[in-house]
## 1
Amino acid sequence: MLAGCATSRRADMAEKHPSVEGGLMLRTNIQGEPTQTFDVYERMKRYRVPAVSVAVIQNGKVSWTATYELPSPTSGKMSERTMFQAASISKSVTGLLAARLAQAGKVDLDANVDAYLAPLQLPPGKQTPANPVTLRKLLSHTAGATVSGFPGYKPGSAIPTTDQVVLGQAPAITPAVTIDTAPGSKYTYSGGGYTLLQLALERHVDMTFEQLMKQWVLDPLSMNHSTFAQPLPASAPAHASGHFFDGTEVEGGAYVYPEEAAAGLWTTPEDLANLLIAIRHAALEGGPFLSSASAQEMLTPKLNNYAFGVFVVGEGERRRFMHSGGNAGFKSTYVMFLGSGNGVVVMTNGDNGSYLGGEFVKAVAMAYHWPDFRPRDAVPAAVDHDVAAAHLGSYRYEKFEGRFPNRVVLAKQGSDWSLVLPDLGPVRIVPTGPLSFVAPETGETIEMSSGQELPFLMIGGRKATLVAR
């Protein structure tokens, strides 16, 4: 077991605490093989993630919080009050802001967004006067808006205004946000759409987005270790530095995200957990902060199970809302069950933190007997060795966004198969059929092509084409 630094609070309520810390599991179990469990520090080292901070929610209350650090010259300085970038989880907080503003009569979620953008107007696109872009459609990623996400800006570089981001004007480094499909016809995840919403709210209410969030969400929920300030001021509370997939620190500690509604939140797991608890409480009972009707509206999914900044999935006891996020050097995730009031928030300061976060969620699910988020089971089976041999070599993803080389290798040593991933390196894969494998560590399935002149792989649903043998 690796040594590390850990701080925790509410230990008296945390009888499951040790079983979670030592109960991290791979995403897929192979039938006939013993189930492996790992210590949190083992997995942090494996994924090159220096720190992870968590909040576990039980019966609608924060049960315990903890922060784990790998040994380093600077370790031991973090606590549960250290802020992390929440990235796309910011959209959940934006959804709550919109619900509160609509409840107060400050905005009409179904009005043409051009009315809130004046004097700016959206350029001609697939929207029409009879089928306009609205705040509701922007919130649910059904407005047809472009620009899926944002890479961030290095500290010290020129930071664009919200207008410049939306219009694609320098110093913005992303294209203009346009409407390329008919509003309401299709789900298209769009951080650009959320930035358009940010601009609409800023102009209509005549406040910065940071001020709006502080007044309408953060202060009412006593989220005292949270902010949408981008960049962070020198007086900001303690905050983590991000790390790339290879473990190197992000230049300046963290990139700047002026697209605050989509990606700008700095927060702690406990602050975020209390926000999730407030949303659930409002949905079940309502209150002055948010009525039951407004909360239910926020949690009613449109297309692809997406509501106001949250994915809402499952039925009965499995019904939950959830989201994940990733900025440069930061990965986070949360889950909140509506019925039981159980949930978890996991925040990391490493690009590979999505792997670690998934394993931590599974450890919590096992310790607290959740109805979901258990490891999947896979049955090993014989592979077609001739087809597999023809697929050995290096591949390139056809659609790729990442800060690491676009190169995947299918390899075989003796009877063992592996996939060399650009962010993790070699991972074991197990044949599950004549043309298929599964990677127990990542949970991804790998499907080989058949009868193609140029072999390709489908890795977790993403196509990768052979470039070298």
## 2
Amino acid sequence: MSDPTCGVLLEHDGPIARLTLDRPASRNSLDLPLALALRDAVRSLEGDAAPRVLILRSSSAHFMAGGDVRRFDALLQDSPAACQAELARIIGAANDTVARLTRLPCPVIGLVGGSAAGFGLSLALACDLTLAAEDARFLFAYGAIGATPDGGASWHLPRRIGLQRALAMALLNTSLDAAQALAAGLVCQVVPAAELDAAGQRLARQLAAGAGQAQAGIKRLLRAALDSDLDTALDAEAASFLAQAEGPDFAEGVRAFCERRAARFDPSST
């Protein structure tokens, strides 16, 4: 699925899917058409259509500058009720997108350059592995317009960087540059802006060559552990390990280890 008129491009390159935000004139600011198109694109990647790896990126220098505040202002001037109704649809689609991204079995790589503000920050936080360009800046932004967060920012941010840092970002509207984001644990790697796409592709190819079912299980277990106790996590780990041990990837991985060679996992396994 690809709808360039709404600011979203979805492309497939073998086992790797690339979901591109393509509304450069507004720094990918989130309006209703973009919110709906993004949600529908992520929906299309579920089930049997799931890729081995998903890359989430921008076509321009900025990842996403948050909501389309100029659109909100125009709506408020015309009809506060219409603004409220449209915001409800935008937030519903945005929240659905984040929930579905985190539930995808495949690893999701976020490539962030320039501004990642408001829902742009929420979207970056929903990715499993986030790479930042050296010029990236992460900004909570909601408080600056008298709003509270959406897109799971209130859930993801304190879990990613700790409550104290999250509160400082949110209440003081302070930004993190790429180096600070790396130190805080918000991103896993920082690269020059000109190398961001290439670094993302290298990481995607590395992941696509791995054991897909094991990666899906690892992602599921680690995300579930954020809200479970140790006993629940131990039971889930045991069930997942034994299920994985019945599959061909486990047999290949064990045999490759014993033969001191690189494992050749089934590229179609997810």
## 3
Amino acid sequence: MSVVKRDTIEKLINETKDINVTIFLPTHKTGEEGKQDSIRLKNLIQKAKNELIEKGWQENRAEELFKKVQSKTEENQFWLHQDKGLALYINEDYFDFFKIPVSPEENYYIAENFLITPLLELQNHHGIYHVLMLSQNETKMFKVAPDVTTKVEFESVPTSMEEHLKYHVHERSIQQHTGTGGKNAMFHGQGGDTNEDDKELELFIKHIENKVTKYLKKENGPLIVAGPEKMVAYYKKANKYSNVLDESIRGNVDNKSAQEIADESWEIARNYFQQDIQSDIERFNDLQGSALISTEIEEIVKSAYYGKVDTLFVPMGHRQFGVFHPDENRVDMSESLNGEAVDLINYAAISAIRTGSTLYGLPQAEVPKNSGLAAIYRYKS
């Protein structure tokens, strides 16, 4: 799970020159397809070079533009640990790249601005949360941030039933010797006293919950609980932390890696962190019939340029080409990137960022009215 913050996108906007090249490539983490990614990137770079030469660049200038890119991508380590996609931003003074968790269309874009719209969705991948993996063999908790997942180490609390029972038997033995009472602890397991087993399991969970809640009160943020049905139920019964999410990951988690649990839990955390998006979509819907919303691309392009847009909903993968003439406040639509034509959705997004608008990159079906672009305005015309 990767994240691209707004200030990163703002930097891309500010780093533009007269000619800027954006390259998007779907990538693969392993296997034969992964080995082909570098070849496919070289082919895209060659196509971009050829187009620049057609635009009047000298061949040596076009070669020089991609030297840093080629130097970086020819490193053996570069192609290890790829995500689902790769985004590269290149001009004569700037080069940067992002490994992204979505698979983009393989393409390149040469224009007066970088193509930033595919990165907008990655702004939604934000926030830090924790995942508690309940297991009788080894209970673990992970802190999941956009770019890294780390294990939280607990001290002075048993993290397995075996440790719990040893500790509990020892504790009761001390109580008996000191005359404080108590019965011998015994975990019967399969075929034993089920009620006694459940009591010990519930007590084990309570000890875990105490430690987790104490830790999370300092950290804040949501907690996702994962594990067998019974253990999850016991945990939620004992829970005293205010931000445990209702949805859990049910089933045996013993063999899940940190990356697997991060990927799986993100599907739950995503809904939590996207509450602002849903709130703004509801706001759009509540404004139906008013002059404060629009799904007309031409109108939105002009409004974004003049700072009227409060919130912009950008569909991922959708493109509309054309030219905006500010002096005449006119938009000419085009079927392709010919002449002065640019990606108008990208142009509107850049204008909206420059004027402080809120932007959301969404799947097409989640954009209000399933439109090619949607906006809430700050004020009526």
## 4
Amino acid sequence: MAKKGNRVQVILECTEHKNSGMPGTSRYISKKNKKNTPERLELKKYNPILKKVTVHKEIK
């Protein structure tokens, strides 16, 4: 049997858009290594609804 790897798929959601109360969401799918980064991932990504680069945090 093959072992499960350390890489997992995570969903990144825009924090600025969520707090603004506007309808819709900006989400990205990415992969991370659980062993190297056990904490939640935070990346700056482009939000097409707000038309600017914002912080996207990992959601469960």
